Amino acid sequence: MSRVVITGMGMVSPLGVGVKHSWNALLAGKSGIVSTDSLNDERYEKIPSKTVGKVPEGELAQGGWNINEHFQKGEARRLATFSQYALAAAHEALTDANWFPTEIEDQLNTGVIVGSGIGSITDTFENSIAFGNGGYRKVQPLFVPKMLPNMAAGAISIKYGLKGPNHCPSTACATGNHAIGDSYRFIKDGYAKTIVAGASEAPLHPLALAGFARAQSVATDFNDTPEKASRPFDKERGGFVLSEGSGILILEELEHAKKRNAKIYAEIVGYGLSGDGHHITAPSPDGLGARRAMELATRGIDLTKVGYINAHATSTLIGDRIENNAIKTIFKNNLDFLVSSTKGSHGHLLGAAGAVEAIFSILAVQNNIAPPTLNLESPGGAEGDNIEDFTLNLVGPKPVEQNIEYSLSNSFGFGGINTSLLFKKYTE
């Protein structure tokens, strides 16, 4: 069957706009987490969690978000924020891959699989209020197409004339991994030669934060020092930080990429997915679903060659502990690999998390460097932890250089959804 490689990448994240800006900020130990006070919205005041990961504003050359640099006047008004982020990241990825097909055969063989966990909660909320206050005529004509989760994929397809498979996973926090993994399978099965794959999310709205706060999922202990709020695997972890952004990758059939002399970042060689069948928000205590996803992604390879794992670890008490134990169970005594969660730096991008972290996992392979887990000071020791279980080689606040042949990237979501992707250093 066909081999599948990554030939382009694009990103909009709390660490910066652009892959280079985000990666450099990550390695430098910078944080994209800010106080909700900076959002200038009084509706956040009574919500107990007051930290979010926000895409920085500013000029693109400095890694900031300036909508006028991405869209013509009037164009942005037709697009929800999550679709705007996806289009910006897709443009960077397509430019990086040097792939803007104009021949019909190439367009038919280029798909778009871009998901979103929530779509536009802002448009849903605002139009609900408008309808309640003023009735039918106060609802925006573009309300439905703006809020639909699949509209990011649709917008990318329309803008670039891409006529291949068009698909939108919407699987909570596993969305990005599902999009990339499904793209991998679609190419191997012959549905396309190239796929624009990833996810986008723009959930920074008081209603979303309030909902996660009511579910007791988000951090509340570091409201005065937001840069310390997201602390995966740490003793003082207490919930995730809600964040926004987008990650887009260009997946391509190897021979197609070689024929056009495309640069190749890495090869994708494994995809695992499973369900817990346990609870709507809590992971299964035995970690069986997480283990199953990782086992499927790594089947057929020598586990001693895995050099880095990008953990899903969102900074929650239960989730981080279960993932830690699941990794140990699979790898048993082969624990020389490095593990980190980049969410310490950028928070939890929900559906887009897997896509952004896949890019970081690919860069880890390419550069032989495991990115840091910001704020990881004391592994384990939180309520319910057995500190003796936290014996993985967890990367702390500083990156670690090590030869990385394979990297594994995990994403798990509400509903008991588990996904893992395996990337490999590209060789002929």
TrEMBL record:
This is 3-oxoacyl-[acyl-carrier-protein] synthase. InterPro entries: 3-oxoacyl-ACP_synth-2 (IPR017568), Beta-ketoacyl_synthase (IPR000794), Ketoacyl_synth_AS (IPR018201), Ketoacyl_synth_C (IPR014031), Ketoacyl_synth_N (IPR014030), PKS_Beta-ketoAc_synthase_dom (IPR020841), Thiolase-like (IPR016039). Belongs to the thiolase-like superfamily. Beta-ketoacyl-ACP synthases family. Residues 1-425 form the Ketosynthase family 3 (KS3) domain. One of its GO terms (molecular function) is 3-oxoacyl-[acyl-carrier-protein] synthase activity. The keyword Transferase applies. The lineage of its organism: Eukaryota, Fungi, Dikarya, Ascomycota, Saccharomycotina. SUPFAM superfamilies: Thiolase-like (SSF53901). Keywords: Acyltransferase, Fatty acid biosynthesis, Fatty acid metabolism, Lipid biosynthesis, Lipid metabolism, Transferase. One of its GO terms (biological process) is fatty acid biosynthetic process. GO terms for cellular component: mitochondrion. It catalyses: a fatty acyl-[ACP] + malonyl-[ACP] + H(+) = a 3-oxoacyl-[ACP] + holo-[ACP] + CO2. It comes from the Eukaryota. The active site is at residue 173.
